[in-house]
Amino acid sequence: MELKEEFVEMLGQLMPDECEALCRCIGETVPSVSVRVNEAKGGTVPAGATRVPWCEMGYYLDERPNFTLDPMLHAGRYYVQDASSMFIHHVIKQLVCPPSPLKGENSMSQPVKYLDLCAAPGGKTTAALQALPAGSLVVANEIVPNRARALMDNVMRWGSPHAVVTCNAPAQVGRLTHLFDIVATDVPCSGEGMMRKDAEAAAQWSPSLVSQCATRQRDIIRDIWPALRPGGLFIYSTCTYNRQENEEMIEHLISEYGAEPVAVPVEEAWNITPAIGCDLPCYRFMPHRTRGEGLFMAVVRKPEGARQPLRTKKSAPPKTNAIAQGIKEWLSDCKEYDLSVQGDDVVANPKTHADALAALRTTLNVIYSGVTLGTLKGKNCVPHHSLALSTALNRTALPHCEVDLDTALRYLHGEAITIDAPRGYVLLTHHDVPIGWVNNLGNRANNLYPKPLRIIKN
Nearest 5°: phi and psi at 146? Predict the structure, then answer.
């Protein structure tokens, strides 16, 4: 890959001693392949894999398999994610969870409210769901509707009932004053760190693009800052190299908002590059030094001050009916959930999130939350794909049938299949991991796998 002269010049000014090695790495080497396994679904170490040092559930693969033809990907047993991006898992574990929680009144070892503002496609969202204290609420927001749909699909695959997906501009989310304990912003950027895997990122780069992105980043920070509670953590990240979008943005947070830098413990052997041009605690992943793509991350704390209590309007009890109440047993620990009927769907949300969810629904466009149990059709209820993939599923509530790889792939392609199981709704599993529902008629099983998710190409 040929890099633009202006870009090489910028890197030369940024890292004069390492510019040649970095440019060679970007232009002549291939990206690594890594996955993060979902232990909540029995994810195991891939054969021949080596662990990502800063994420205990992350693994490098020797080569890139055809992920599309692996039912376990579609079942949410693992997520394909660049190793550098998995650093968010380490940040959360170090600053939020034991064994090294923050000390004093800022300790967050209890469940928290976490916002992933620019969340699509969902890698950092699912990492947060995996790393945060049990029972934490994760709100994943994406402003672009089609990207929000992809985000929703990936969150659904991961299976946590403690996630909410919204589709809103940062300024709209910012109206939720002091709601969140942690706000993570993987902001839109010039994409310099993605050039090795995306030729378009190299082709569209320009100094003016960098300036445009920096302006947009400052606007995003301004819009979302009110949503973070005093004393809360703000995690800022980009996939770019220049200082304008990175260290200078952290300096802007400090000077404009009084933010306090927060250091994250790291191992020297990880070869993470420190801040360039200042002594702030910043963490740069450079592909010629670390095994992964380009990433910048830093954490600051919002200054302490008066906190505005969460206020929600009193609302009528959730709309339910006899059918909805009858399928509550499809959930394990069903007493821990509130049910509501939204359109034709029966949705369950953890009771512990009721106040926060009421505030979210009052202010934002919520497109997914908790677990969708099923879709009402007359006096019947068709189990929803969300339920099949949820870790809250009661596996004993409905019949299930184990299928081999060939049958699983035909199902994921949307084909009708034949199974040896009772008539009616049946949960299909592969390697004992749920992959979706069929309506078994005896001579054939009607495929209930959602059409937008079906495999189109082999």
Answer: -70, -30
In sequence order, the 6+-apart residues with CB closer than 8 A to the CB of 103 are none
Beta strand 137-141 with 163-166 is parallel
CA distance 149 to 155: 10
- Which residues make beta-bridge pairs with 393? 331
Q: Write the pLDDT tens digit of every residue in 11-27.
A: 999 999 999 999 999 99
As a whole number of angstroms, the distance between CA 222 and CA 218 comes to 6
pTM value? Answer: 0.95
125 with 151: CB under 8 angstroms?
yes
Q: What span, in angstroms and rounded, lies between the C-alpha atoms of 340 and 346?
A: 6
CB 96 within 8 A of CB 114: no
Q: Token digits for 344?
A: 């034709």
26, with CB counted inside 10 A (0-12, 13-18, 19+), is: buried
Kindly calculate the radius of gyration of the chain based on its CA atoms and give it in whole angstroms. 23
Write the pLDDT tens digit of every residue in 100-111. Answer: 444 444 455 799
* Fold agreement (5-301, 398-458): no
DSSP string, 408-436: HHHHHTT--B--SS-SEEEEEEETTEEEE
Cβ count within 10 A of residue 86: 28
Strands 282-285 and 260-262: unpaired
6 within 8 A of 207, measured Cβ to Cβ: yes
Cα–Cα distance, 265 to 151 (Å, whole number): 30
Would you kindly state where each structural domain of the chain is located, as residue ranges? 5-301, 398-458
Which distant-in-sequence residues (6+ apart) come within 8 Å of 405 by Cβ? 71, 430
Which letter does DSSP use for residue 68 in this model? Answer: G
pLDDT given for residue 325 in this prediction: 77
pLDDT higher than 60, residue 373: yes
Is residue 99 pLDDT above 50, yes or no? Answer: yes
Reported as type and span, the H/E element at residue 208 is helix 207-224
Give me the half-sphere count of Cα atoms (radius 13 Å) on the Cβ side of residue 193: 28
- Architecture of domain 5-301 in this structure: 3-Layer(aba) Sandwich (3.40)
- Measured distance CA(186)–CA(128) in Å, rounded: 13
CATH fold group of domain 398-458: 2.30.130
Bridge partners of 282, per DSSP, are 298
Diameter of the chain measured on Cα atoms: 71
Confidence label for 97 from pLDDT (cuts 50, 70 and 90) = confident
